[in-house]
Amino acid sequence: MERSKHLLRLRDWDSERIIDIIRIAIRLKKEVKEGKYSNDFAGKTIGIFFEKPSLRTITSFQVGMHQLGGMPITLEPKNIGMNKRESIMDVARCLSRWVNGLVVRCFEQSLVEQLAEYGTIPVINALSDDYHPCQALAFGQTMFELFGENLRGKTVVFVGDGNNVANSIMELCAKLGMNFTLACPAGYEQKANEIELASSEFKENGCIYKSLNNPKEAVVNADVLYSDVWVSMGQEQQRDSKLKHFAPFQINSELLKHAPSHCKVTHCLPANRGEEITDEIMENTQLNFCYEEAENRLHAQKAVLWQLLH
Ligand code: CP
Ligand code: NVA
C-alpha cells in the first residue's frame, strides 16, 4: 500500500488532505453534539497495539470506533510478543486478515513503518519516539475552530523538547502555512533531517522555521505557545539532567509577559504541572485551550479512520 493510505507521519499527506480531514472532524464533532452516530463501520474492527501508556489516544480511538459503528480490539503487547514471539512481518500479515486497520503506539518509528510495509491494512501512528500525527491533527482542528481556516502567518512556538510532538506540530505548521519556532535548551533541537524535510514545505507555503535557545526571545511574536512534558515516555533515566536543562523553559506568567497579549497556550497532555507549565496557566482556560484540543482528539481520529478505512 502506498504511504498515503496510512498515517505514519503527517509529512506523507498533502495540505489538501489535511484540510479535508480537519473539515470532516469538525462535521463529525457537530454530529456527535447533535446526538447523531453513524453505523457505517458496522462489522469493521481496528486492532489497538500500544507499547506505551495512554489516556487520551487509546480512549478516543476506542470511543471513536464505537461511535462509527465499528469495534476496537485491544492487542496486548505481552500476548503478541512483537518481533520476539514472532516476526513483525508475520504479525502484520496475520492481523491484516482479521482487522480493517491498526492503531499503534510504539518506541521505534520503524515498527509502524514495517507493519505498514508487510500488512495490507491501513496503519495509524498513535505516537512513536519520532512523531505524533494524531495530536497534530487535533491541534489543527482546534486552530481552525479558534482562528478560522486561514492560518497563514500565525506563529506557533513549541517550548520544549524537539522530539515526537514537536516534529508533528512542525509538520502541521509547514502544511498549513504557519510559522514554527522551537524554543529548547541547546542539544534538544529537532534532528537535522526532520527540519530539512520540512524546510521545502515551509518555503512553498510562505512560512518560517526557527529554532532558538532563548525562551524569552522565542515567544516575542507567538500566537500560540505549545507545551509538552520534558521527560517523554521511555526517557525516565534522563529525568534529572532534563529538569536541569529545561528549567528556564517553563511556560509561566513571567514567560508570557514576553509574548503578545493575545497569545494563547496549549499542551498535548499529560502535563507535569510545576515542571513544563504552571498550575496557574493550566487553570486559566481563557488562555489555555488544551482541553478543547484533547476533546478534538476524538473527532480528528474519527476523521482519520473515516478517511482510511471507509
Ligand atoms: N496526548 C496524548 O497522546 O495523550 P496520551 O498519552 O494520554 O494518549
Ligand atoms: N513527548 C511526550 C508526548 C506524550 C503525549 C512523550 O512521548 O511522552
Describe the structure.
The chain is α/β, with parallel strands linked by helices. The chain has two domains: 3-131 and 296-309, Aspartate/ornithine carbamoyltransferase (Rossmann fold); 135-293, Aspartate/ornithine carbamoyltransferase (Rossmann fold, 3-Layer(aba) Sandwich), CATH 3.40.50.1370. The chain has 13 helices and nine strands. The chain has helices at 15-33, 56-67, 77-80, 88-96, 109-118, 133-147, 164-176, 192-204, 215-218, 239-246, 253-256, 279-283, 290-309; strands at 45-50, 71-75, 101-105, 123-125, 155-159, 179-183, 209-212, 224-227, 264-267. The strands form two sheets. It has a five-stranded parallel sheet. Helix 6 packs across helix 7, helix 6 (133-147) packs across helix 13 (290-309) and helix 7 (164-176) packs parallel to helix 8 (192-204). It is globular, with a radius of gyration of 19 Å. The two termini are 16 Å apart. 47% of the residues are buried. The protein binds phosphoric acid mono(formamide)ester and norvaline (NVA).
